Amino acid sequence: MHVLVVHNRYASAQPSGENKVVDQEVALLRGAGHRVEVFERRSDDIAVRSLLGKAAVPLLVPWNPAVRAELAALLRTERPDVVHVHNVFPLLSPAVLAACADAGVPAVATLHNYTQVCPPGTLQRDGRPCTECVGSTPLPAVRHGCYRNSRLATVPLAVSLSVNRRRWWSGVERFFCISAAQRDVLVRSGMPAERLAVKHNFVPDPDARRAGAGEHLLYLGRLAEAKGVRLLMAAWDEIAATGGVGVPLVIAGAGPLEREVTAWAAGRDDVRHVGLLDPAECRKAVARSVAVLAPSTWLEAFGLVVVEAMAAGVPVVAAGHGAFVELVEDGVTGLLHQPGDAASLASRTRRIAAEPDRNREMGQAARRRYEQGFSPAVGLERLVDEYRTAIAGRTESMGGSR
């Protein structure tokens, strides 16, 4: 199969699960003998633009005509079987869909978040779940300044969502939702249910798996409010006040709360902030964990770190909402805590650290769950099946139009 992947890469200064997923899917397809090309833009490139070029970026968010022309020309030359769209913000824009239509190539799109119904894509405001824009106009997002706490910065996203909604819904043969929880939200918003397929992300089999009981509890991810970092700090303070759990908390990652986390961890022997780790170091840190903590306050559309823990045979403590509910079987592959509740998070963390035999059983069950649902073999089969469905759907519609 000949596939062209379209992706706007997120800034390299912060970890991006989405960039990782794209890279892993490309490698998986190529390893299986498929021909894969990548059409991309990089958010890092914005920094080297002229002042005028930087000022023009918000205007390109809803529509980038140069991208349409460039991609359409490439598609006419290369004639791929299918185009797989990932992120188009901020430099690509939904103009990529027009290019696919211009060249007559079917498009599929992975929905890594909720940008189809929520300008910032998080379904969260002021640290709490928010669905004001779901099934409605994005005006509430502008009013609240939901993207980067700025009304001005939110406007281009809101405009793009409004003017391109129908283009997305009619121009994409198959949308890949990365969890059933995400699909449910999108169907309720009015997106065409028949085009929304659940295709979980896969995770490569790690070169490191947990061998013993583990030596620390681990938070691995972006240091941001939506990821539950402040909630985790509050829960850990509660744990520390009652004597701790016998192992330290390791926090790995970077993000807007990094300075706050660094200050909080300073001078403590029960917390280590280790900053941004490279992929190999991440895998080692996971494999050495008693458990991985995923206390997100927003409704995660998937939860890559949860599945990475499962792959290493490590149980998780995760917030009991969003995709985590379908990824984690409570009491079997990990524990779920009450979302946004520091006391509940503290209680589940104590429990998973205090019962080593049960912890080991949960780790083994988590590994089995990974093998059955999130391995590369499973991921490849589902991905190629969905490509074939999209190609067949386009062929049928073209036949019916003649």
UniProtKB/TrEMBL annotation:
Keyword field: Glycosyltransferase, Transferase
Domain Glycosyl transferase family: 216-369
An example Gene Ontology biological process: carbohydrate derivative biosynthetic process
GO molecular-function terms, A-Z: glycosyltransferase activity
Glycosyltransferase subfamily 4-like N-terminal domain residues: 18-203
Oxidoreductase recorded as keyword: no
A family per Pfam: Glyco_transf_4
Family matches, as InterPro entries: Glyco_trans_1, Glyco_trans_4-like_N, Glycosyltransferase_grp1
Domain of life: Bacteria
Entries under SUPFAM superfamilies matching the protein: UDP-Glycosyltransferase/glycogen phosphorylase
Gene3D superfamilies linked to this entry: Glycogen Phosphorylase B
PANTHER family per record: SULFOQUINOVOSYL TRANSFERASE SQD2, TRANSFERASE
Descriptive protein name: Uncharacterized protein
Organism listed in the record: Streptomyces afghaniensis 772
